[in-house]
User: Fold these one by one.
Assistant:
Number 1:
Amino acid sequence: MSDKKCTKCGAAVDAEEVKEYRGEELCEDCYLDVMSPTQVCDPWAVHTAKSLKDLPGGHDLTPVQQRLYDLVKERGEVPIPEACAHLGLSEDDLRREFAPLRHMEKLRGCKKDNIIQLTLF
Ligand SMILES: [Zn+2]
């Protein structure tokens, strides 16, 4: 049953899965997008991140982002709550760390059984 609409992309969203952000009702994807500091503050950061991703190493990850990336790389799929526990972060903090990784096309979130799994891009 979908009885809400994402105000950003118009996708149908289950009422209990709607994310509210600054008065908007967003789907998971758009929520992750708006939570991304790079996209909100500096559209060029995304461009830069994309052009950096082909460089060997691409040393533009924070230590936490590197640990998150390594964790997902090692396990293949990591549910968000498990990643939080592993890195000692709140879910909000984890999403903030995750957003740049997503824009760098290193990690992505994919939903399975109502839990968001982080996987390699
Ligand atoms: Zn949306």
Number 2:
Amino acid sequence: MKNKLIQSVVLPSGIRMPVLGQGTWRMGESSLEHQAEVDTLRVGLDLGMTLIDTAEMYAEGGAEVVVGDAIAGRRDQVFLTTKALPTHARRRDLIQACERSLSRLQTDRIDLYLLHYPPQWRSLSSLQGLRYWRSSIPPVEVFETLQELRQSGKVRDFGVSNFSVKDMKLARQYDNGLTATNQVFYNLNHRGIEWDLLPQCRSHKIPVMAYSPLERSPLLNNPVLQKIASDHHATPAQIAIAWLLHQENIAVVTKTSRVDRVRENSAALDLRLSESVLTELDRAFPPPHSPQELQFL
Ligand SMILES: NC(=O)c1ccc[n+]([C@@H]2O[C@H](COP(=O)([O-])OP(=O)(O)OC[C@H]3O[C@@H](n4cnc5c(N)ncnc54)[C@H](OP(=O)(O)O)[C@@H]3O)[C@@H](O)[C@H]2O)c1
């Protein structure tokens, strides 16, 4: 772990990606919240959270519509990420899904287009729809289509999400070394990826995008985190985000629909944690001592 903050990570393509981004899961669900969500994202952009992460899945495209309005007139300041469902992974479906996302986002290009879930999720009963992929779509078709989208310029880079070590090995057989990131569940309370997935990605120079850095907020009630925050005149959310930002080759996406909280969260970019604080956090939130199954939300 490095005790030094950087403001961007370099993708295998050489393109830089900001280290702190704004998530949009649960945005776009109510028209009453639309303007507040747009305003929050804009304030976040002003504060340097220029990566915006969304997905066609969120509010069935509604979150992409919010993002489209938030970045209107300032597209060039934004590093835009969205995600395709594996149920849209057939060549024709993926190209159409990408076109729909571009249209909702009111842009002609996506900076980073992610496949939201990997092949083995198809067998989980909670994601029945993804079985479609196992039965009929070979990974070669998916990764060739992602490369085709990249060549067309509609997508500047592509990547994956919720991919385990095994999934990443599979991806590398088909991606021509172009998979730009793996977006995974990673925070102080869930450090399993440090055992194998993180070293694997680092060995291929693939930055990892950590999602749910606040564990969707329960983490913030941890007494050790609260004490460290109070010692730093900071908040538990800022410490949780800063801890991730202190690591090498990690970008972080956190979500809020509140302007006060986007101000709070963006200030994590300026927090410096000492070696002794990092050690204290390691004691309270121990790293893994054995392989763990990849967790997800
Ligand atoms: N690839 C995937 O499968 C996947 C899965 C999950 C998430 N993601 C992406 O990652 C983003 C972030 O993850 P997330 O939304 O799950 O979780 P998160 O950022 O860990 O937490 C968001 C929750 O915490 C609250 N919150 C935010 N800042 C806070 C603060 N300073 N103090 C107290 N509460 C705060 C938010 O409520 P308010 O909005 O009311 O402030 C929201 O309920 C998502 O929005 C999405 O873009 C990707």
